[in-house]
Write a structure and sequence with these properties.
heterodimer; A: 92 residues; little secondary structure; 13% helix; elongated; B: 189 residues; mainly alpha; Ferritin; 0% strand
Chain lengths: 92, 189
């Protein structure tokens, strides 16, 4: 299966005349359910306690949200395509 | 019928005295995309959907009630010891006047719960797409709720609930896949 990142970012237009300091990078969640299709059989599973803590039995379905990571402008140059290091997950 | 287990689906811990957060959490209690809306929507749709999907709606609808119970616990913990003055400062003065410390099915802006939040079109695809959208909206609401608090224990419970929305959306998407195949076609092997 293809690589997937649990959120995407984009750089909105910033006017010279905006009244507030600009948020240079905006982000939105793209959880695993957008990509998975039918869940494949026999995927690896968490142990019971970790599954409860994570909210899912399968690592493949875990798609976390961290507010600090989401809200911080990650990139100094707003016009370039931002790279997505955190939570990069390889799925097979 | 239902069997009740006298415990929460996931432990709820609230560590910061923050009655205003209770007001925000009411969005998931009696709001349009809240847990009550979700539970009633799914359980009601079971009667007019193909057999393969009925069990899924029962399971998810039931789980939504256990989420409702978690949200109720959070709101209760955040308001039970608040004075009228504290509630007033948190924007819950009107709530106190109408309900004292009782919980009530209303959204974060104080609008009472209404059946118009529920959708049941009778068309299986329309209803399942509605359900997928409802899960995504609930997921987003949990994100904004997580943004509104710095209480890591409260965030922990909200993150669990957010992940459950993702799993539910996944299951509804799988239900669409089940219903869209050529079900009446003869199978050749």
């Amino acid at each position: 299966m293809h690589k997937y990142s649990s959120y995407k970012t984009y750089t909105p237009y910033i006017s010279k005349y905006d009244p507030c300091p600009p948020m240079k990078v905006k982000s939105y969640s793209t959880p695993i359910n957008l990509y998975l299709g039918f869940q494949p059989m026999n995927l690896p599973q968490y142990q019971a306690r970790e599954a409860l803590q994570k909210g899912t039995l399968w690592p493949a379905l875990y798609s976390p949200y961290e507010k600090v990571k989401m809200r911080k402008p990650l990139f100094s140059k707003p016009q370039t395509q931002p790279e997505l290091q955190p939570e990069e997950e390889e799925m097979d | 019928m239902w069997l009740y287990e006298k415990k929460l689906q996931y432990p709820v811990k609230v560590s910061k005295c923050d009655p205003m957060m209770a007001k925000y959490l009411m969005e998931q209690y009696g709001g349009a995309d809240g847990e009550l809306s979700a539970a009633l929507r799914y359980l009601n749709q079971r009667y007019s959907i193909p057999n393969e999907v009925i069990g899924l709606l029962t399971d998810i609808g039931t789980e939504e009630f256990s989420h409702l119970e978690m949200i109720a616990t959070m709101i209760y913990k955040l308001t039970k010891d608040a004075t009228p003055e504290q509630l007033k400062a948190a924007g819950l003065g009107e709530h106190y006047v109408m309900h004292d410390h009782a919980l009530y099915y209303q959204n974060s802006a104080g609008d009472a719960f209404t059946a118009t939040y529920l959708q049941a079109k009778g068309d299986p695809i329309a209803d399942l797409y509605e359900d997928i959208a409802a899960e995504e909206k609930a997921r987003a609401t949990y994100q904004w709720l997580i943004d509104m608090t710095d209480d890591v224990d409260l965030q922990d419970g909200l993150k669990f609930l957010r992940e459950r929305e993702i799993v539910h959306s996944q299951r509804f998407r799988e239900a669409v896949e089940i219903l869209k195949v050529e079900r009446d076609k003869q199978k050749f092997f």
